[in-house]
Amino acid sequence: MSNESVTPFADNWAYLKSELNWLDRLLMLAVSRQRQDVKEVDRIAKHSGERATSHWWKGIITLEGPSGYDEHRKPAARPPSSKTSYSQQLEARIQASYQQGVSLALPLLRDHLHLSLFEKNVILLALAPEINRRFGRLYSYLQRQDDDADWDLPSVDLCLKLLCRNDQEWQRAREQLSSPNSLIERGILEWIDASETTLLSRHMRLPDIVTSYLLAQQPDPDDLVHLVQPLEVEAAPVVDWLIHERPTQPWRSLIVPETLLANLKALSQTVKVNSEGPGKIVLLVGEPGTGKTSAARAIAHALSSSLAWVDLATLPEATNDSVLNQLYQPVPGILLVKSAQHWFGRNPVLEAAHLQHWLQTQRSQPGLTLLTVHHLQSIKPSWRQQLDGVITIPRPDEVARRKLWKQALPTGTTVDRKLKWTQVAQQLELSGGEIVAIAATAVSLAQAAKSPSLTLEHLQQALALRNLEFPSP
Question: Does an H or E element contain 280, and which?
C-alpha cells in the first residue's frame, strides 16, 4: 500500500468511528453465532436439564451439519489472505495521520505503553459503551448465558472469546490481563467486581480520567506522561541497593537538543540491532538534574526493556565488593550505574583488576551498561579509553527550560495569567531536576492555600524554600 493511497484520519473521533465500526461487526458476528448455537441446543435438548448442561455435550454429540462449539473461537485458523489485512490498513492510516500532525488518543496510548493488539482492543471494548449504549446491550446479550446480571461492561471471558482465535492466543492474552504489568496494575483499567472467585468472571471499566483522554477531540501526547506514569512505574528493590523499574518515558518526553536526542536514538538502535552481540558500555556526563537518568529510561522504553540501577554514592564503602560480585550476575534489561567515579575515578574504592574483569564480563554478554558522572574529568582517562562512547548532556537552554516548566505541571493545573513561563525560563537558569522539584513545591503551596490557580507568589515561595529568588524584570 503506497503512502499516496492512504487517507489519514481527520481527527480522533474519525479514528474512533472506524474502530467502533470494526467492533460492531465483530460483535454482530458473535451474536449471530450465539443465536445459532441457542437454536441448535433448543432443537436437540428435550428438557431444561439438557439445555442447562449443553456446554458439556456440545461438540461431542454430532448434530446435523458441522459440530457446534461452546466458544466463539474456531478450532483452526483460516488460511492467511494475500490481501492487506484490516489491521495493516488501519495502521497505515494511523501513521499517515501522525505525519499530518493529527493526534489519535488510543494509538498514542498503545505506543506509549507498548501494548499488544489484544490489550489495545480490550481498551476499545471498555471504551465503546461510553460512546454508544448499543455496545453495552450487545455485551449484556453475549454474557447473559453465563451471568444472570445485566452487565453492560465486558468481562475478561468475553474479551478472550471475542479477541482470541486459538488456545495459544487465549493463554497469552489471559497472562497479559493477570501479570504484574497488566492494564489493571497500570491504572488504565479497573475491576468492577474484583471479589469474584475467578478472573474470567470479572468485569472491567475505564477510569474517568482515561476515558476523557481517549475521547478528546485533540488529545495532547504530552498528557500521557502525567496520565500513566504515576500508575504504571514498577519499582521494587531486589536488594536494598539495586532498583528495578519498567520505564514509560518515550523519546518525546526528553527535552534535550536535537543532536543529543539523535545520538541517544542511535545508541538505542545499535543495541537493538546487536541484540545477540557483545554488550555496550557508555558514559553519560552531565550536571545534577540535567536528565541522565531520564535518558536511560527513554532508551529502556524504546527497547521495551526494564531498567536496573544502583547509585554508588549511597553505598557504604564496605559493601562495594559485594555489590560488584552480585553485578556479575546478568541483569535483565539495561544496567545503570550512577556516580561511577566511586569505582572509575582517581580515588577508587575497588581494585583496578576487579573492575577490569567486570567490564570484560559486561562486554562479553548482550546488553547495555550505562555509567553516569557529573564531570568527565572525574573518570580516569585509562577507563574512558575502554568505553564504547561518551554522551554529554548539557544544562537546558532558555527554550528547553520553558518546555520543562510546562511539562513539570500536573495535567489540568490552572496558571495565573501574570505568571509568564517565558520570563521565568529567561531569568532562572535551572536544571530540569531543579525545575521539577520547584514546580512540585509551588503546586503543593497553591493546593494548601486552596488557590484556584498557580500564581507568581506560589513560585516565589517555592524558590525561597531553596534559597533562590525570582529576579526583578
Answer: strand 280-285
How crowded is residue 100: how many other Cβ atoms within 10 Å of its Cβ? 10
CB 112 within 8 A of CB 248: yes
Q: What is the mean pLDDT of the chain?
A: 82
Contacts of 238 by beta carbon, 8 Å cutoff, 6+ apart: 244, 308
Q: What integer pLDDT is reported at residue 237 of this predicted model? A: 40
Gyration radius of the chain over CA positions? 27
Cα(192)–Cα(340) distance, integer angstroms? 47
Q: Which three cell numbers stand for residue 218?
A: 485533540
**Using CA atoms, how far apart are residues 35 and 64, in angstroms rounded to an integer?**
17
DSSP one-letter string for 281-316: EEEEE--TTSSHHHHHHHHHHHTT--EEEEEGGGS-
How far apart CA 360 and CA 352 sit, in angstroms, is: 12
Structure pTM? Answer: 0.50
- Find, among 224, 205, 133, 175, the residue nearest to 407 by Cα: 224
Enclosing H/E stretch for 119: helix 117-131
pLDDT of residue 185: 83
